[in-house]
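Run log, item B.
One chain of 444 residues. Sequence copied directly from the ordering sheet:
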Amino acid sequence: MTDKAALLNDFATRVVKAASGGLLDKRPIEIRQVRTVAGPRAGALQVDAGLDAGRLLRVLSRDDCALLRQFVPWNFAGHPAAFMAGRWVRVEAGWSPELAESDIPLRALGPYPHGGGRWVLGKNEHGRTVAAGLNLDRTPHWLVSGATGAGKTVALRSAVCQLAADPHNRLVVVDGKRGASFRGLAMAGMVGPVATRPDDWRAALVWAASAMRTRYDDPGGPGRLVVVVDEVQEVILADPAAAEAVRRLVVLGRDAAVHCLLATQHPIVKALGGPTVTRNLVGRLALRVADYDASRVAVGGSTPRADHLLGRGDAYAVAPTACQRVQVAYTTAVDLEGVAGAPEWDAWPEVDAADLGTAPKGRPSKWPEPPEVGAAIAAAADGQRGRPWLQQAIVSQGLPRPGCGRTDRLLHLGREVVGWLETNEWILTHDQAWAEQGVVCQSA
């Protein structure tokens, strides 16, 4: 018998003895059956108390589980919990660090599923691999919630890595942390680069919403379009066009095989775009959150309590009719190398937010000035000149220094022009073009 099994049997014996002896309440509570569960991060009992289930739950959960704490025979971590799970009263207590299994690499769980919009979340408390899915019937969209240190980014990177391995998926990845979550991520299944700035957030999401509309006009398009947004509340607050795109994707995406995987540190209904959006996020991966109010949104109900989880990948995976406590598996550099590749586009195209019926904040982007175009072409033709050189070159011509988003769009424009010139057998003379602040082409 393992240490965990012995501890759980001792735990069960203490609870049954106190209940049947009338020590928990004024009257004895009949315990008909107890099941023990030795999970990776917590030990649990599932207690069948029949018609006395309500009384047992009230006693064990009273005063922040003060009485329940006295029955746990190990030095538990975090907060013990008691709640109803079906007809069972379930009580949980986190393992001490020496008993906990908190680091589980994805490869340790064996081959993970490819296809069907599925990916592995991790290991459940029965030692089985738990897979999530993006499907039309049960969980078209998922909400991933977790405070700092809870493991949200680890879970999200693992999902993106696995979904990218399926050639039937196309991914749009938006990083509301401005690059902190997906720095350096480049996979063959991605439509464009990771969107890390407000201009690119809007461009990527409006493009996805436009692609969804196209799929409705021309049904039967290939595969799924998966939109992954980390720190979605930052993206929604930054731009009304991005917020409207998220709303449309979540509300209307299912029947067009467009699925959303939205993540946040602060699961608040208003920050997620309102109750309509939240109700459509049927699948929930709830890691540790800050408080009870956040837990209600993260889990989709009053129990179980995600604010009582232990962090570092300890999570509840919630789908219609199912809830499991899971230790999230992490991806390694080897896993990421297996799906490495170049996105289809090297930059997101400029978009007209009027297509969504919502104008973006601030002034519209102005038409490029001739010196900007000339500098962009010179930079693209040289091949070694990037954003800093282009910005400095534009400033030297007496124009305002362009922001990163505008500079990237100018570079993209320059590459397109140079590509056209080369295709049509024209040769650009770089030095003369820049010296004259224009473009001189000579026939080949």
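Observations after the first pass:
- The two ends are 83 Å apart (CA to CA).
- The chain has three domains: 3-94, 106-355, 370-443.
Flagged for discussion on Thursday.
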